[in-house]
Amino acid sequence: MKVNIQEKEISLVNENNIWVQNENQEIRIVKHNDETLLLITPNKVYTIRCLNVNKEAKTLTLLYNGNKFEAKITEPIDEILKSMGLENALTPKISDLKAPMPGLVLQILVNPGDTVAKGDKILVLEAMKMENAIKSPTDGIISDVLAKQGMAVDKNQLLITFK
């Protein structure tokens, strides 16, 4: 497994041995608690907090000495897929958004041609007297908005399509 932190590649050889670029350094990694790791070198102990883990994107946000660092984890299968030009082969392709429940479209926050990121709020659906923010299930470009403000929709009705 490889981890990239600030363009520095670290390869995990085994539980206690890490290669930092071409330098072999003996480093023990110990889980202190749910959000803290201890990196133990022969000369020093470093305390690192893990602020955010995104398993899907294989990223970590780490905090050390008041500075945030983004870490990207690459597994052997990722390297194989990349070498074959299939790096996005394991990412499901989502081409449409359907209503998760029957309700009333209160607000549409996107237009055809808009670029959205996964998790962006794209419309508001009222169901059972509650407003529900519907978020984008994928990164992409809005192809068509089939829902209209004030429109009543059924469960699984097509609302938005992506390119």
Using only C-alpha atoms, the radius of gyration works out to 22 Å
The biggest sheet amounts to:
9 strands, antiparallel
Shape category: elongated
Strand order of the largest sheet: 4-3-2-1-9-8-7-6-5
Number of helices: 1
**Chain oligomer state:** single chain
Low-pLDDT residue intervals, each spanning 5 or more residues? none
Count of domain modules: 2
Strand content: over 45%
Given helix and strand content, the structural type is mainly beta
Q: List the secondary-structure elements in sequence, H or E.
A: EEEEEEEEEHEEEEEEEE
**Using DSSP, what is the number of strands?**
17
Features:
mainly beta, 9-stranded antiparallel β-sheet, 163 residues, 2 domains, OB fold (Dihydrolipoamide Acetyltransferase, E2P)
Question: What does it look like?
Answer:
With 163 residues, this protein is mainly β. The chain folds into two domains: 2-83, no CATH class; 96-162, RNA polymerase II/Efflux pump adaptor protein, barrel-sandwich hybrid domain (OB fold (Dihydrolipoamide Acetyltransferase, E2P), Beta Barrel), CATH 2.40.50. It contains one helix and 17 strands. The protein has one helix spanning 76-83, and strands at 2-5, 8-14, 17-20, 23-26, 28-33, 36-40, 45-54, 59-64, 67-74, 96-98, 103-108, 115-116, 121-127, 130-135, 140-145, 152-153, 158-162. The protein has a nine-stranded antiparallel β-sheet with strand order 4-3-2-1-9-8-7-6-5. A hairpin with a 2-residue loop joins strand 13 (121-127) and strand 14. The longest helix is centred in the middle third of the chain and has 8 residues, at 76-83. The protein is elongated, with a radius of gyration of 22 Å. The two termini are 33 Å apart. The mean pLDDT is 82.
